[in-house]
């Protein structure tokens, strides 16, 4: 009977099977986003729970600073004075 002093480490999975998560792209704007974080990210990588939880707390405290500012409207132009063109009488 063979007795092993140490178990072998499990093999490292191939690179294409890794779950890579970019924390900068996580948003909490809609319920769908939050459900995705709960059901997918935390389910498959529970070590990220504390990090994502602290990100969410910061987001909730700074809602105004996190709002996206859209500068689609230009500065209002100065109103112009319109003059009627006087017609000359041809007599």
Can you offer a commentary on this structure?
- It is a single chain.
- With 91 residues, this protein is an all-alpha fold.
- 34% of the residues lie in helices and 0% in strands.
- It is built from three helices and no strands.
- The longest helix is centred in the middle third of the chain and has 14 residues.
- The radius of gyration is 31 Å and the shape is rod-shaped.
Which characteristics define this entry?
mainly alpha; about 90 residues; single chain; 3 helices
Structure described in brief:
With 91 residues, this protein is mainly alpha-helical. The chain contains three helices and no strands.
Radius of gyration: 31 Å
Number of helices: 3
Question: What is the CA–CA distance across the termini?
Answer: 129 Å
Beta-strand portion reads under 5%
State the assembly state of the protein chains: single chain
Largest sheet: none
Order of helical and strand elements: HHH
Task: Using the alpha-carbon principal axes, give the shape.
Answer: rod-shaped
Mean pLDDT: 74
Secondary structure: helix percent? 25-40%
